[in-house]
Write a sequence for this structure.
């Protein structure tokens, strides 16, 4: 698969060899589990070397990387509803625009440009012409996040230049490769899934599209898992895509997955410090799933 890149600005490469590269996947309201993972990382002083995000993972990851305090991010997430980032305007390209995400970035993020982030960050979107990933690493966070969150059928694609861009989770359900491309030696992926939580027949167009995308993503597991040293799977399968009121349940699921994985995470960090070990996909890689 071809990776089309927005050019990277200069990061401190040494930092990327110290700590965990977090890859935060898409999943709408289920993505609030990422907040629980970040909380445990802070409580346990787990160093984060870089962050890559798709869809809601791009919002939470970039907000954290901007320097906004985690309690403020959580407080804002408690307030956010669908209308705060979506504007209904039925067109031939989608049911709504996500242009209101720009206001969210302006009001919450401590930094609005990649170049000013405190943690090296990559955001993944999908090029609808080629079907390839587009990885943002510099410029406007608003443009990158809007593109990464443009779920097909629901939101209009975001046009940047001659490209029409859509949800990054289509090509990178968990953007572990993007984290590797940033230079991370250790990558922890957080997968929250996309399925809407119901087992019965779909009842609306969103469920049809989301289940189709979820089915397609099942065939991508090997592609993104092989770039991860560790995969966390918070138990959020009962939550629906728009269960934004279930933030506490989602966060606790993320925190539980992170706590269960702490022995493995610490082992990875210890191995990273050993000069005889090789990482970055070439040496001893531990693939594991956190217990629920």
């Amino acid at each position: 698969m071809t990776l089309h890149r927005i050019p990277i600005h200069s990061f401190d490469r040494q930092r990327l060899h110290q700590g965990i590269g977090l890859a935060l996947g898409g999943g709408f309201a289920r993505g609030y589990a990422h907040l629980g993972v970040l909380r445990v990382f802070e409580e346990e002083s787990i160093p984060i070397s870089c962050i890559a995000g798709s869809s809601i993972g791009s919002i939470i990851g970039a907000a954290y990387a901007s320097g906004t305090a985690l309690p403020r991010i959580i407080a804002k997430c408690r307030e956010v509803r669908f209308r705060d980032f979506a504007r209904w305007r039925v067109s031939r390209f989608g049911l709504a625009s996500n242009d209101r995400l720009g206001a969210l970035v302006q009001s919450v993020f401590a930094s609005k440009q990649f170049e000013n982030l405190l943690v090296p960050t990559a955001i993944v979107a999908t090029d609808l012409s080629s079907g390839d990933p587009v990885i943002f690493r510099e410029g406007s966070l608003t443009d990158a996040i809007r593109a990464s969150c443009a779920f097909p059928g629901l939101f209009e694609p975001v046009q940047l230049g001659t490209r029409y861009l859509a949800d990054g989770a289509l090509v990178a359900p968990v953007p572990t490769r993007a984290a590797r491309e940033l230079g991370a030696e250790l990558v922890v992926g957080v997968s929250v899934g996309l399925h809407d939580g119901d087992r019965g027949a779909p009842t609306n167009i969103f469920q049809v599209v989301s289940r189709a995308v979820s089915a397609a993503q099942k065939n991508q597991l090997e592609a993104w898992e092989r770039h991860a040293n560790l995969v966390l799977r918070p138990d959020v399968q009962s939550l629906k895509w728009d269960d934004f009121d279930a933030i506490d349940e989602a966060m606790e699921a993320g925190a539980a997955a992170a706590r269960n994985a702490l022995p493995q995470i610490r082992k990875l960090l210890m191995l990273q410090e050993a000069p005889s070990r090789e990482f970055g996909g070439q040496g001893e890689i531990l693939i594991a799933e956190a217990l629920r």
Q: What stands out?
A: The CA atoms of residues 176 and 224 lie 6 Å apart. The chain is about 35% helix and 15% strand.
